[in-house]
Design goal:
Length: 168
């Protein structure tokens, strides 16, 4: 990693932490800020696939967010899904055939969703109460649908960013 890449990663991590802080302070925009902070992890992967920078950015933003952000639920969402997913998405799309990509992404999302559900059931995610079985099944199905929409939207946003960002 050269100095330019380290500086770019630091600035992106600072932007991600700032977005997480705003999302933690203003609960109405928490999910949007968490998603926007997660997009910062995708920026190093746009042109030259700086995977190490993207992972270090994710780790730094996760650690700093856990220390600084007032509402930890936003940080948990970032750590479990929004911050890491752009990196996982890049690895899946770069290494697997197109026919199996969405299936693998759905498996990843459902594992993360199950982990979040387990954390909530054990009381580690304060304030989250799991609903009954039927409501949980409906929420699980809806979450998978929203995830697929999110994945398509993220793909389109990445395509737009690739066209708009200046060459390195």
């Amino acid at each position: 990693m050269d100095a330019r890449e380290i500086a770019r990663g630091g600035l992106l991590a600072a932007a991600a932490v700032a977005l997480l802080y705003v999302g933690g302070a203003a609960s109405a925009i928490g999910p949007a800020c968490c998603i926007a902070a997660g997009i910062a992890s995708a920026v190093p992967l746009l042109r030259r696939a700086h995977l190490r920078t993207a992972v270090m950015l994710y780790l730094a933003a996760s650690l700093l967010g856990a220390l600084i952000v007032p509402r930890k639920g936003v940080v948990v969402a970032y750590v479990l899904f929004c911050g890491l997913y752009p990196v996982v998405k890049y690895l899946i799309e770069a290494r697997l055939p197109r026919q199996v990509q969405m299936g693998i992404k759905l498996v990843y999302f459902n594992v993360v969703l199950a982990a979040a559900g387990a954390l909530a059931a054990w009381g580690l995610l304060g304030g989250i109460v799991l609903p009954g079985f039927f409501k949980l099944a409906v929420l699980w199905f809806a979450a998978n649908f929203v995830f697929m929409v999110y994945d398509i939207g993220l793909s389109r946003l990445i395509a737009v960013l690739r066209r708009m960002l200046p060459p390195e």
